[in-house]
Each structure stands twice: as C-alpha cells, then as structure tokens.
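Sequence, please.
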C-alpha cells in the first residue's frame, strides 16, 4: 500500500475540510464560476445587493443542517456545522467585490 490513513479526528477533518473547500470556492467565485445552486445565488446577491457571499451560503448551509437533524446522527451534524462555519467564514472574510476578480 502506498498511502494509508488509519484515523482522522472528526474535528480536525471538519476544520481542514472547511478550509480546503473554502479555498476552492474562493478560486471559483473570483473567476466568476460556481458549483451551481446556492453559490450562484450567493454571488448574485453579493453583486446586486452587497450581501456577503459567505454569509448567504452559510444561511443555506444552516437550513440544510437543521433539516439534517431529523435524519442524521447529532455528532455528524455538529461536525458538519463546524465545517460549514469554517468554510463560510473563510469566504465571508476573503471574497469581497473590491478584491481581485479575474476577467
């Protein structure tokens, strides 16, 4: 075996995963791209009305996590919430209309 991961701490996984996804979404948003759905709406609302894209995305994520409480184990929802907070906090801080946007 070339590479093996025996255990990943769920908290570390949530934080690191949130940051990695945040970097990827930031790159997409700066190049006027998205993964669709809420990302498109978040960018539109930021451009049109000045709402922070990360906060709009967080609102969508929190809605999904509240619904998940009814079908998923509580600990999984808590770690998902931590990942969503890290991801969307990263976007809210770093994605601003006055910063670099590729053309």
């Amino acid at each position: 075996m070339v590479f093996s991961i025996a255990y990943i701490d769920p908290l570390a996984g949530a934080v690191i995963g949130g940051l990695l996804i945040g970097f990827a979404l930031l790159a997409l948003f700066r190049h006027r791209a998205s993964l669709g759905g809420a990302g498109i709406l978040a960018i539109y609302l930021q451009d049109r009305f000045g709402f922070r894209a990360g906060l709009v995305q967080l609102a969508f994520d929190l809605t999904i996590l509240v619904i998940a409480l009814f079908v998923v184990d509580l600990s999984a929802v808590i770690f998902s919430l931590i990942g969503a907070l890290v991801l969307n906090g990263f976007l809210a801080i770093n994605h601003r209309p006055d910063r670099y946007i590729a053309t």
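Residues 10-94 form one domain.
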